[in-house]
Amino acid sequence: MNNIGIITGREYFTRVKKKSFILMTLLTPLLITTFYGVIIWVSIGQSRTLENQNIVVVDRSGIFSENLKAPESIIFILQESYSTDQLIASDSVNAIVSVSQDYTVDQSLQLKYESMSSLSVSNSSRIEQAFRDVVRDKKLNTLGIAQEAIDSLQTNIVLSQFKVKEDGSTKSSNIGVNTGLGMALAFMIYFFIFLYGVQVMKGVIEEKTNRIVELIVSTVKPFQLMMGKVLGIALVGLTQLTIWIVLTGILMGVVGVIVGLNMGDMKELQNVSNNPGLANVDMNQLQFVSDFLALPLAKIFGVFLFFFMGGYLFYGALFAAIGSAVDSETDTQQFMLPITMPLVFSIAVSFSIVIGDPNGTLATWMSIIPLTSPVTMMVRLPFGPPDWQIYLSMAVMLLSIFGVIAIAGKIYRTGILMYGKKVSYKELARWLFYKN
Amino acid sequence: MSIIQIKEVSKFYANHTALDKVSFDVPKGCIFGLLGPNGAGKTSLIRIINQITAPDEGQILFNGKPLNKEHIKRIGYLPEERGLYKKMTVYDQLIYFARLRGMDASAAKNTINEWLEKFEATTWKKKKIEELSKGMQQKIQFIVTVMHSPDFIILDEPFTGFDPKNTQLIKDEIENLRNQGASIMLSTHRMENVEAICDNVVLLNKASLVAQGTVMDVRNSLKDNTYSITYKGNVDVSSFSGITIKENVQKDGNTTLLFTYNDKPDIQLFSDPMIQISEYREVIPSMQEVFLTLTDSSQ
Prior knowledge:
The complex is a heterodimer. Chain A is of the alpha/beta class. Chain A has helices spanning 2-16, 19-49, 84-89, 121-142, 147-152, 175-209, 212-217, 222-273, 276-294, 297-325, 333-356, 361-366, 373-380, 387-415, 425-431; strands spanning 53-59, 74-79, 95-99, 111-115, 162-164, 170-172. In chain A, 68% of the residues lie in helices and 7% in strands. In chain A, helix 2 runs parallel beside helix 8 (222-273). Chain B contains 8 helices and 14 strands. By secondary structure, chain B is of the alpha/beta class. The model of chain B has no long low-confidence stretch (mean pLDDT 88).
């Protein structure tokens, strides 16, 4: 047992002292925060610097003149005529939209947009919508429907979702929040298993090709060497995760303070302009945060930690077994496939089918089978799967870890001392039954 | 008293027998040569003594007791295929292996420093293994083998990669260790080294023991009544009736005869006053010859 500790220590300290580890551990939260900050900054900056577009409308058909309503951030200026030379000369006019003289509401509408800058997608659809509304209203008017009736057809829809529990209590449930959180957690586990599983494999291959193994296994049992390596690298991962969470938390907090101040400014702006659109966005953000906080976060984090470690141990032992069976990294391909397949499968299916139906049969089974459960359970977790399924999944995972480690240990024990031999699956199976 | 007793040890692999009922004793306080061609079963035997693998049949005694996990700390092993962590510093590496062998930190520190001084290697402490020359790496590997003061040391080809000066250094260290009471099992293909430093040897061929004893015993066992005489002078040796001449070499006015006596050895045959004898000796096969004869696959 003591030997496992010594080996774990070596694996841990040689890795966390590496420059690449320190760099990646410190840079990732910085990158995440920067990314997050830039998105917020850009979106705030955009809405702030958003200037109204002055668009001259030359309506030769006379259909739109009176009824055209300027959408958000666009000001329509009606003119009898306006030449492109005038547009070039003008500082205030951004574009000309013209309608041909022979247009009637029965035809499809050809709008001509002339500008010195290109049209943004949002403005394009706003302009189209404004013209479409006029045509629609005209058509409805000819059918004898009053303008008030037409206006009353405009409806804002907000879908509020509530999850009903068995004890009859209800809780609001936000698909967006659930999906986002589930996918983020699942992806972290997926990423961690791959990143650190491959490190285990590389470490084993290094020891084998450098022939350190022969020296070490004359002192410790192969099983101790394997476990020391797997556990040491697990600690490296936990260290990285912890630093990521803490650092990202701090940095996000800092960004939050800066952005929060700006949001205060924004609110004043909004009060002045009394822009209902932006206020709506703010409401949505508040809803988002409160829905996130309403989730059982402690439970989710606990289950996440379990599968974070469990998934890694399960796959890490398999990666160790592969490393022991080959002579060099280039030989790993044939054995990697059966390991990477279920992982890639679990992330692909979880992000599509499971997200769509988080409590369906496929989702349930995938979150119990240990090959896919670490990823799938994370995707399901924010949607609140039944507790018994979580416990069953954890129990299955725990048992499987012991099973896989026992199998991997047997392959490892034989494999690490076997050189210059192309190993087949049949051969691997035979190793399981070797005595020392 | 023996440090290691091998009793009827056999090891079978899927397609071949690596060891077939091998038995011998390694006496305490000697340098013991484990010889044999590639594939004779030396590495299998070494792995069994190191408890990396277990014998399929037979038993090994360490200090008279069946070999067990506790004995591992009393054994030092220098594998033929050397290996250290390339990215680790010399000092960290030595400390790591010392701890794996159960040494406590302060004892390990002292021993490591002593050995580094002995090998004039104190300035390498903070260097990574990959920055060292091959010979330097070999020295570190040797320190890893002996730093926990084992009672029994297995050295598999310890001289490869060393220049003549360092080879002598390692030879001296091996003899030092023996003189301090350690028993050393030396596996090598360099027979001149065997003659120079081994007290006892065993020779394995095709999974079985073909010779064992002191170096002289083994060499004597193959002598075939051949003698060599070197003399100056002119005499018709073919007239001597008591000997059969195998070889007659003339060089720098000297004649060297290789011959066998037909009857009992009788130096009187050469009492001719015309002959000035400068050397007369019985020819004893070298370890090289013993090795080649006993492992000749055509036999």
